[in-house]
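Need Aldehyde dehydrogenase family 2 member B7, mitochondrial's 3D structure for a figure. Predict it.
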Amino acid sequence: MASRRVSSVLSRSFTSASLFSAGRSSSVARGIGKYSTDASFEAPIIPSVKVNYTQLLINGQFVDAASGKTFPTLDPRTGNVIAHVAEGDSEDINRAVSAARKAFDEGPWPKMTAYERSRVLFRFADLVEKHNDEIATLETWDNGKPFEQAAKTEVPMIVRFFRYYAGFADKIHGLTVPADGEYHVQTLHEPIGVAGQIIPWNFPLLMFAWKVAPALACGNTVVLKTAEQTPLSALYVATLLQEAGLPPGVLNVVSGFGPTAGAALCSHMEVDKVAFTGSTDTGKKVLELAAKSNLKTVTLELGGKSPFIVCEDADVDKAVELAHFALFFNMGQCCCSGSRTFVHERVYDEFIEKAKARAEKRIVGDPFKGGVEQGPQIDSDQFEKILRYIDYGIKSGATLETGGGRLGTKGFYIKPTVFSNVKDDMPIAQDEIFGPVQSILKYKDLDEVIRRANTTRYGLAAGVFTQNIDTANTLTRALRVGSVWINCFDVFDAAIPFGGYKMSGHGREKGIYGLSNYLQVKAVVTPLKNPAWL
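Structure prediction for Aldehyde dehydrogenase family 2 member B7, mitochondrial:
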């Protein structure tokens, strides 16, 4: 049931008429008005949950930061403080790593049978399912994403990810290897040890699941640093893991800032592996700190500037809807968003007209209100960054078709923005904006669009919209990216690996590939005496 909701709400494809959203969105838009935002005219909806967990989770206990410091986490609808959260730093990372190291070296978790570990993860998934709406409410309150997206898609996906990896826990095994000579050779797949994990603010709980689930299934212990913008939901679900039977010290959660807590985690000599999701610039620093310390292994899921290619045979109405989803989903705050929309010259003018109209029908408002498609940006820094890039687009000569500014008078809302006549050398076509800004570029033929699509430092994902299987196959193999979605976008099944080429990262998360991030392979060789066979 969860997987059906995931594929129908998060992803968009055009294999079934039931997945189209244009009609519903358009009718709601007519009722509320162009670029409507309830946040500007009504008091924000008061969330129905209390914030009960604001301390650090270390060795199974909630504790204050060693310094006693806290920092505010804000409601992006208003900029008001939701709660003050413990501000962890290097001393708190030391405490958390010490607990994780002891739990791995001496505790029961890696020594449990794989089946027992799987039962803990299955129980946790059941508890997340039970508390679906509470978790989704915290996520929306702290992040600003639509509640319907969090409750109907993202929290069920967390359940799915943990059940997926719980099922893998007792299926991790090595091989018996034939060798030249009288030897018995086997490989062991062993847990790597203490995993440091740093998650971003755009999908806090999904990234929690992508990282924590495979790490625990493999028998590791974890020190997780939350994004300073969105600490609340991870602290809440960590309590559910404890309720499910996770031993103390196996999962430790530290809220804090990158230059202090994050840097301490990456450079810690007792951390065996780091997994990071965030910007490419920060990823470089993570890699440097890991190399300069104990040369720990690193998994990086970084930035993107993904092409979305509309071919000349496209059904323009469907292509517009899918391209709109690919860019504007999650307020444009998605590493793989289709932020370079390449449209064939034959359909370019029609596409521009309809993309503008679709953006102007987008429902922007309080994310707790039903029917809202777009909430506020995460914070003032991201809000101002997006506005700067909109200004760059105007000054560099792109045509502003619609949007282009703040929406309302409070909170961090931005009008859905569409640029046409965008050139490859413009900042809006080169840099990761991470906001609701669609840049539409014109191309003539496949060779040209392949060259231009690949002319970027990123290589995370791409979308292709075509009715021609030969065109799809040509583009699939030519695009230098980690994921290619054909006539769909943002399909994030638990079994599908995700990661980037080039400066979009190292390694793959999700699926069977995600397990290798948290395992080491050991070869064991034993001589055989008078073997009956080799």
